Amino acid sequence: MEEKKITENTYNTVIVGGGIAGLTSAVYLARSGQKVLLIEKNKELGGLVNSFTRDGFQFEAGVRALEDAGIIFPMLKDLGIELEFVKSHVSLGIENDIINIETINDIEKYMQLLVKLFPESEIEINVFIKIIRKIMKHMEVLYGIENPAFKDLKRDKKYLFRELLPWLPKFIFTVGKINRMNMPIEDYLHTIIKNPSLRDMIAQHFFKKTPAFFALSYFSLYLDYFYPKGGVGKLSEALKNKIIEYGGTIKTETIIIEVLAENCLVRDQNNSIYNYDNLIWAADLKTLYKIIETHDLPPVNQAKYEETKIKMLQNRGGDSVFSLYLEVDEPLESFRKIAHGHFFYTPSKSGLGETHRKELNELLSNFENIKKEQIMNWLDKFTRLNTYEISIPGLKDPSLVPSDKTGIIISLLAEYDLFKAIQKAGWLDEFTSEMENHMINVISDSIYPMLKTKIMKRFSFTPLSIQNRVGSSEGAIVGWSFEKAMPVENKIQFSDRSVMTPIPSIYQAGQWAYSPAGVPMSILTGKLAADKIMKKRKFNS
Ligand SMILES: Cc1cc2nc3c(=O)[nH]c(=O)nc-3n(C[C@H](O)[C@H](O)[C@H](O)COP(=O)(O)OP(=O)(O)OC[C@H]3O[C@@H](n4cnc5c(N)ncnc54)[C@H](O)[C@@H]3O)c2cc1C
Q1: Three-class SS state of 102
Q2: CATH architecture of 10-51+62-82+231-315+481-540
Q3: How confident is the model at residue 343 (pLDDT cuts 50, 70, 90)?
Q4: What percent of the chain has pLDDT over 90?
Q5: Within a 10 A sphere around the Cβ of 236, how many other Cβ atoms?
Q6: What does the DSSP 8-state code read for residue 35?
Q7: How far is ligand 1, taken at its centre, from the CA of residue 350, in Å?
Q8: SS (H, E, C) 363-385
Q9: Tens digits of per-residue pLDDT, 446-471?
Q10: Ligand 1 atom showing the smallest separation from residue 22 Cα
């Protein structure tokens, strides 16, 4: 066993993973005066909160816009970070009908859109909209105050007595309601809507088996999207600068390949060793359980460790995404006339049906005997009937594109296993190119007719690219799959516990530490993990 060496590589806290969760932990621990090291595998920080530039066009590699959720703005205020934000308005479209969602009252337009397309289901749509309205009220409570994790409760008495304490009973009541809507969205919709196409129009926006409350809070979330001027990567950049300002150390292009828990050290790909008093794992959790060595854990921890390890390794990442990036020789104005820069569009009201589930599972279960032609037929249906997320950064900040040009990101939820099987069969490039062609055809034949002839350059990221870039199991974009029993905390009232692991002095943060996740929860868990360490330090000193 290796002795813990006291070298210059000894830190109060080492944080593995320079995504938004790791950045948050690092900034708070550095601010508290700790000797902090943040380790990131890639050259750039931010993980799935990242922007990049090609040929003068700026795009997002991960999340397209940010939701405050009572977390992001309070954190920025607390850290004294000033970023310029614009509202990232959302449009929703089905076939030729598009609505812009700018205020809470636009729920009416959404209802009218659904009734116009599905007049025979008007009564069911009314019931559904009533439920959405109720959920919006719950969301107002949930995100109604600045998250207490980012407030100084000892000093800010006004916040404590005027906001937090009156809010708590409402929060407890709302949590009860939320927990009762935990069933998968598909099953929940079955209880209120008979028309399968209408159900699809709602459900195919979401990950498979998303808990109903989380899914149906989408209307509230659409109203909460913001975009930092300069791209979402500005948020990661601002946190990085603060870490440096507070004296923290950042090491990029460094991959942790081993964790020796008894010795409190981690080892990177170059065999460098970093000693820690505390470790925050802010990256894929399956990776942690694959590379960690633990021998002398106390018996209680050992049992919990074994149980957790099995649960983690048996589970898998949730849905992934296929993103097509286009550099287009057409001014922003042509696109602005059609929809906002954040657009959820469904070209056919028929709905995906079983295309992305039963039919795909059948193809995958017998992949060796399936002909390419069958996959291509499936792809044709998949791209025609799906719901697209379209993001046009230049419509939020025109400085992000060359003049008279437009950069577009068009994405679809996608199945990692399909891309993996095709890669193994040796025709991934052909499939990717065919998928790009299909997506361009569908979008040009429907919502952006000017697109097809004006594309100057295109490229795409598959679920495999996401896995390679951020080390995310199955290319998942918000952590664990909802299809299996959750191996981490998933009750909002217990989010505080989500950062604990069975291994002494090791904490977890980010999209794998709590479910359902996303940017705000990744930030919150990053802060909660830092808080646990700061508390422990105070207690010990
Ligand atoms: C297309 C897309 C759309 C999205 N839309 C939304 C949305 O609308 N709303 C929302 O809230 N969320 C959305 N998300 C999800 C959100 O971006 C993520 O949940 C969040 O950014 C995760 O942050 P994280 O820090 O936990 O993980 P990550 O961003 O994955 O960061 C982990 C970091 O750890 C590094 N790393 C991994 N392994 C190692 C290792 N062994 N050693 C060193 N470093 C390592 C990785 O390189 C990475 O930088 C979206 C994501 C995508 C991709």
Answers
A1: coil
A2: 3-Layer(bba) Sandwich (3.50)
A3: very high
A4: 88
A5: 24
A6: -
A7: 33
A8: HHHCHHHCCHHHHHHHHHHHHHH
A9: 999 999 999 999 999 999 999 999 99
A10: 25
Of the candidates 81, 53, 64, 50, the residue with the CA atom closest to the CA atom of residue 396: 64
Domain layout of the chain by residue ranges: 10-51+62-82+231-315+481-540, 108-214, 319-473
Percent over 70 (pLDDT), the chain: 98
Going by alpha carbons, the residue nearest to atom 7 of ligand 1 is 63
Q: Is any atom of ligand 1 closer than 6 Å to the C-beta of 66?
A: no
**Is the pLDDT assigned to residue 1 strictly greater than 50?**
no
Name the band, by pLDDT with cuts 50, 70 and 90, for residue 287: very high
* 526 C-beta closer than 6 A to ligand 1: no
User: What is the Å distance from ligand 1's center to 368 Cα?
Assistant: 33
**Is residue 152 scored above 70 in pLDDT?**
yes
Q: How far is the CA of 47 from the centre of ligand 1 (A)?
A: 5
User: Ligand 1: which atom is nearest the Cα of residue 225?
Assistant: 8
389 lines ligand 1 (CB under 6 A): no
pLDDT at 6 over 60: no
Q: What is the pLDDT of residue 540?
A: 66
Q: What are phi and psi of 92, to 5 degrees?
A: -120, 135
**Which of 245, 230, 219, 275 is closest to 3 using CA atoms?**
275
Residue type, 477: I
Q: Length of the chain in residues, anyone?
A: 541
Cβ–ligand 1 distance for 151 under 6 Å, the answer no
CA 274 to chain centre: 29
CA distances from 531 to 26, 157, 526 (A): 11, 20, 9
CA torsion through residues 101, 107, 111, 112, sign: negative
Ligand 1 within 6 A of CB of 286: no
Assess whether the C-beta atom of 235 lies below 6 angstroms from ligand 1.
no
Question: Hey, which residues does 251 pair with through a beta bridge?
Answer: 39
Which atom of ligand 1 sits closest to the CA of residue 509? 26
Position 208 confidence tier, pLDDT thresholds 50, 70, 90:
confident
Q: What is the pLDDT of residues 493-526, one digit of tens each?
A: 888 999 999 999 999 999 999 999 999 999 999 9
What are residue 36's DSSP bridge partners?
Answer: 13
48-94 pLDDT, tens per residue? Answer: 999 999 999 999 999 999 999 999 999 999 999 999 999 999 999 99
Whole-number Å distance, alpha carbon 305 to ligand 1 midpoint, is: 25
For the Cβ of 518 lying below 6 angstroms from any atom of ligand 1, the answer is: yes
510 Cβ closer than 6 Å to some ligand 1 atom:
yes
pTM more than 0.85: yes
Phi, psi at residue 47, to the nearest 5°?
A: 55, -120
Measured in angstroms, how far is the CA atom of residue 484 from the centroid of ligand 1? 21
